[in-house]
UniProtKB/TrEMBL annotation:
Domain of life: Eukaryota
A Pfam family: EMP70
Lipid bilayer topology: Multi-pass membrane protein
Protein's name according to its UniProt entry: Transmembrane 9 superfamily member
InterPro entries found in the cross-reference section: EMP70
Parts forming coiled coils: none
Subcellular location: Endosome membrane; Golgi apparatus membrane
Amino acid sequence: MEKGLWISVCFMFLIILHFHIATSFYLPGVAPEDFHKGDPLRVKVNKLSSTKTQLPYSYYSLPYCRPDHIVDSAENLGEVLRGDRIENSPYMFKMREPQMCNVVCRLMLNAKTAKEIKEKHAAQVLHCWE
């Protein structure tokens, strides 16, 4: 192979490799967000799903700690189409600030509620956090 042809082939290979590496994708409605030290980081909760059932449950269908007012916060159409049920939670952190374990709330469970939690656990219900 001639030297000029070899250089052209190598150059074309590098151009193709560059375009292959430089590809990316964009998720509509998902944009990067900048945080500074001390900024509040609010935790959102999603539906409860299971590997054994097809029906999702609302996160607050079980007796978890709740905020004073529950607000739906779907941020884009994709979340709605996937069936996500994103809601606020009472959990909050601050950016780059160490925090020890804190008690958010204390709940007393009666026998019926405890049985319901055990049944959901047996159905392998998974928690989704956002």
